[in-house]
Amino acid sequence: MEPSGNEENIPETGGELNEKSGKKRGHRGLWVALIVVVLLAAGAVFVWVKCPVKKVYVQGTSYYTSEEIAEQVIPRDKPLYHNSVFLMIRYYLPGAPSIPFEEKVRVRMLDAETVLITVRDKELAGYIPYVGKNLYFDADGVVREYTPLTVRGITYVTGLDVSDAQPGRRIESEDDAVLGLVLEALQAMRKYEISADGIQVERAGTLSLYFDKVRIRIGRSDYELKISKIAQILPYLEGRSGTIDLTNYSSSDENIILK
Question: Which residue has the higher pLDDT, 20 or 184?
Answer without folding.
Answer: 184
